[in-house]
């Protein structure tokens, strides 16, 4: 059960770091459901055998994803990647997508998950005010389901719901009891919905390594004007400040989160404090400095993870804007 994005043509002026929005998922609903059935009824060991032909297929017949994988791996590894590196990258992605089924079903009996920094999450829940958790397209967000000690954490993902609908549909089919809370951004009332969720003591998860697909207001999550170009793996890349501004505006703690896939059946979930905007400065200049420090810290942590676990980063698009005009 895996998808690798294969870009559609992108209009002039829209290529670059936000080009992921123009991509379509390259997959087949019937194939996904078949793999989900095998995963549920025959077990993880049998399902993982299917990852071999899937990885071969995308390695040979998905040239755009392969090109972006090579570019990223060259930066993360500090050398030209060989076919084994590209294989490991795609196979890790396929493995993580497969394991979504087991995490979604709430019983990762076949998976070993180590949690670091879980006390930060429980402290945020105990406060009754909630917190923001900022991650990236690295490893598995679904691994957070293993953190709740048998109970699903009250996490709402802030995202663009038009992406990955097929994967979400399959997850609901194999785990109908899964409560997948999603707050759609880019729509009127998004910020109020996020505030209300936090007021109920919930956690808000966001991924900070993709940009809004269009310009405009952006429903409170930041428009295309909230962009910063920072060094990332040796080459400047564009990051959005929208998620951080939202946490700052709503005066909530901001945690860094990641669920690294360590190979085989092993995952490591980490939480670290990124910034505490609960008592954010009143002076606009100081608030901007606060924001800038938090963004630099986020990018530095993401870069360190890409070097530590290079096959875990799953942005198969033109992240460094090398195929078109820079943002």
Can you put this structure into words, describing what you see?
With about 325 residues, the protein is α/β, with parallel strands linked by helices. The protein has one domain. Helices cover about 40% and strands about 20% of the residues. The chain has helices spanning about 30-40, 45-50, 50-60, 65-75, 85-105, 120-125, 165-175, 190-200, 240-250, 285-310, and strands at about 5, 25, 110-115, 130-135, 155-160, 180-185, 205, 225-230, 235-240, 255-265, 265-275. The strands form three sheets. Strands 3-11-10-4-7-5-6 form a seven-stranded mixed sheet. The longest helix is centred in the C-terminal third of the chain and has 25 residues, at about 285-310. It starts with a strand and ends in a 19-residue tail after the last helix. Residues about 1-15 and about 215-225 have low confidence and may be disordered.
């Amino acid at each position: 059960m895996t998808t690798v994005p294969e870009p559609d043509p992108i209009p002039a002026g829209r290529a670059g770091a936000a080009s992921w929005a123009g991509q379509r998922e390259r997959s087949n609903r019937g194939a996904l459901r078949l793999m989900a059935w095998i995963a549920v009824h025959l077990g993880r060991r049998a399902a993982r055998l299917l990852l071999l032909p899937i990885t071969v297929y995308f390695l040979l017949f998905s040239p755009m994803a392969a090109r972006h994988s090579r570019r990223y791996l060259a930066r993360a590894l500090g050398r030209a990647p060989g076919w084994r590196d590209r294989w490991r990258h795609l196979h890790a992605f396929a493995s993580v997508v497969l394991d979504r089924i087991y995490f979604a079903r709430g019983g990762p009996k076949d998976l070993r998950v180590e949690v670091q920094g879980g006390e930060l999450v429980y402290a945020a829940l105990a406060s009754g005010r909630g917190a923001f958790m900022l991650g990236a397209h690295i490893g598995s967000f679904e691994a957070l389901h293993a953190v709740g000690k048998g109970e699903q954490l009250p996490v709402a993902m802030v995202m663009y719901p038009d992406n990955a609908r097929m994967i979400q549909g399959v997850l609901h089919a194999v785990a109908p009891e899964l409560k997948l809370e999603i707050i759609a951004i880019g729509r009127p009332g998004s910020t109020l919905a996020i505030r209300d969720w936090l007021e109920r003591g919930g956690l808000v998860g966001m991924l900070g390594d993709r940009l809004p697909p269009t310009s405009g207001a952006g429903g409170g999550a930041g428009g295309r004007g909230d962009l910063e170009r920072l060094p990332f793996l040796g080459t400047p890349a564009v990051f959005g400040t929208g998620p951080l501004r939202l946490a700052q505006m709503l005066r909530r703690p901001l945690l860094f989160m990641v669920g690294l896939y360590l190979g085989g059946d092993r995952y490591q979930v980490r939480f670290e404090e990124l910034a505490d905007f609960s008592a954010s400065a009143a002076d606009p200049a100081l608030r901007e400095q606060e924001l800038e420090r938090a963004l630099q810290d986020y990018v530095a942590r993401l870069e360190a993870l890409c070097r530590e676990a290079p096959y875990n980063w799953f942005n198969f698009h033109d992240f460094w804007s090398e195929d078109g005009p820079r943002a």
